[in-house]
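Q: What does the assembled structure look like for these inputs?
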Amino acid sequence: MDKKLFQHTSAPLRGKGIGVSATALGIADASAQGWSILHEDVSLPAAVLRHEALLHNLEWMRRFTAAYGVHLAPHGKTTMSPELFRLQLQSGAWGITVATAPQAREAWLAGARRILMANQLVGKANMAIVAELLRDAGTELFCLVDSPDNVAALGGYFRPQALRVGVLLEIGAAGGRTGVRDAAQVHAVIAELARWPDAVQLAGVEVYEGVAPDEAGVRAILQHTVTTFQQLHQAGALARRPALVSGAGSAWFDVVAEEFSVLAGDPGIEVVLRPGCYLTHDVGIYRDAAKRIHASNPVARQMGSSLQPALQLWAYVQSRPEPGKAIIALGKRDAAFDAGFPVPALHYRPGTAAPVAAAGHWKITAMMDQHAFLDVGDQDDLRVGDMLCFDISHPCLTFDKWRHLLVVDDAYTVVDAISTQF
Amino acid sequence: MDKKLFQHTSAPLRGKGIGVSATALGIADASAQGWSILHEDVSLPAAVLRHEALLHNLEWMRRFTAAYGVHLAPHGKTTMSPELFRLQLQSGAWGITVATAPQAREAWLAGARRILMANQLVGKANMAIVAELLRDAGTELFCLVDSPDNVAALGGYFRPQALRVGVLLEIGAAGGRTGVRDAAQVHAVIAELARWPDAVQLAGVEVYEGVAPDEAGVRAILQHTVTTFQQLHQAGALARRPALVSGAGSAWFDVVAEEFSVLAGDPGIEVVLRPGCYLTHDVGIYRDAAKRIHASNPVARQMGSSLQPALQLWAYVQSRPEPGKAIIALGKRDAAFDAGFPVPALHYRPGTAAPVAAAGHWKITAMMDQHAFLDVGDQDDLRVGDMLCFDISHPCLTFDKWRHLLVVDDAYTVVDAISTQF
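A:
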């Protein structure tokens, strides 16, 4: 099987976490180098994507959303990788979700022509970036609105340019993040939209259910979203055909699929889910979510397999200053640390046959910019120069630490590389 | 005065936090665009460096270290900016400090020919990167050692290549990070070094005092470092002339200067301090440090002025969903959040004359990947589309969120830009 998955950008391969080469390489050259993590061909720390797990997750989510008859617009903010965006689009994604105007441009440059900016679009320069994309007649772009002020700003910007931006009314929750809180706010937004039909098109309704504190709260805001959507749809307020309804971060996408499935059969409606972390998954917040999903969601149960952690970090033991402590050359510059520290998965001593499972009691207890503190047993055989492979929690804040990630096979040989464009 | 400070790389200007242009720009083009933050020419969020404050801080540290007769090798891991490295070198820096081999390469590419890698050098690929730099006869590079295993690995790698790497013995503290803990560990390292005189040169002694819990602890480890240095120096164990002694992160550089001043007058000794955050300073951990410094350090008191916060973030209010809450389009993707959240400094409503001071009670209470939650008063006049300028805490973890930072004058007009190479 050809493991060179990606259409590459022309980005030079430069910086940390790549193989050492006597000549200047582009990112497309990585696949031909034969670099092996275990042979120490790569400067550690390095971030790697497990090829098989990545493809498994891609297919898992394709089947899951297909089973519910819903569309997928993966949140691109997670990876911000043109190569991964293309992979997701080739795998049938309806579009790419982003959080900002510069991210929208990156998604467009990677080939997305349906872009869901799951955020308010604010500021002239950000609107100018979006305007540039909208001038391409083949591009649909939707942003969120939750205030008349923002609708007026969008209308005032796009009308003089004879452009029309799609918007989704964002449903919020009291104490939550963005989004309208009550009927009065809905009406105020709808009233302002009526002033700008040529410049701001209400295409549907959106919610980010992740602000709710628990499953009951998640279901409540989703049901409220369905109700609001149906009211607007039946009132003819949604100008796009089919009308859009969108929800789902990476933790509750199954519940969103369930709750929105009442709308999914209607040809006049497109249900769009937008998880971002499924592609790499993790062993922290999203593994916890997957456990809940497999315990409760019938489609996931029927599919048997689950998402697999595909993003790992390799690093060296750099110091063993005290018996129960190892200092690892891996820091806040390399890994997310806001939702649990990296978790040792494998231990490899260069020159030995193969990695072995890391001891279950090895645990990172603190991280600095460029170091991690690993608690180990006083008698454990862990030496300076040994390599550790870590699983991670929170892919988003790990991806943004890397300009390149290496794609590896099961033997941790580099078969490809991807770039990020944060 | 010419505000174009920098020798630029050829990096394309792409991504977030830059001005909108119809044509593809390189980073060297930014100065000619006349972009104004206040006129909304720039996509927010954006990271800006205040030109005058940057130059002030540069000069302040030059004078401070000169007063103590010590050298400066600014820690490059903070900014990882070739433009800023060159500025520091032009301002008289002895060299550039880094934390990893890829960072060492970036420092070298930016022009540094004395590179202090204030970390252990581990792994074949990392050693290969360093070997490439050492083949330039005009380059001196020093890394840290704290174990015989690491010394043996360095010797085994560099001897066959007929290269010699400089090393500093790292002094550690019980319960701390890296570094030797006791005389037995010192002797073990020295004994191993004796096996590799041609390949591993003991050039001096290093300490990172920031692992100590308080000033008494900091002074104790510094004094222990001086004693160890003197013993090794007098024993003829330090092969470089002048011998090196180095300490100082960004919080205790004054105390390091004081404690190491007993060595600074000796022409056979080079004292090298390596703070990294002084160049941009902050309003969090390093402002706290500056307060202590000005209360206790006679040189700093005599200099009168203090370091100034030079790194700021501009962002939009994107939603005002509840009376006491504003949602800001600024997240963990844009700012450090591990040592205090960004602090509102200025409030600007596009179209008005000038920014005003942000209300003192406005406070970020939480951050998500792309959003910040700002507590405001129920009656405060803060609208969707308003701009806020934030000071930050922890420059290191802010810089690494940006591939470009704009340099601005006091009116927040863009006068230049810098790149980062994380």
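The two ends of chain A are 31 Å apart (CA to CA).
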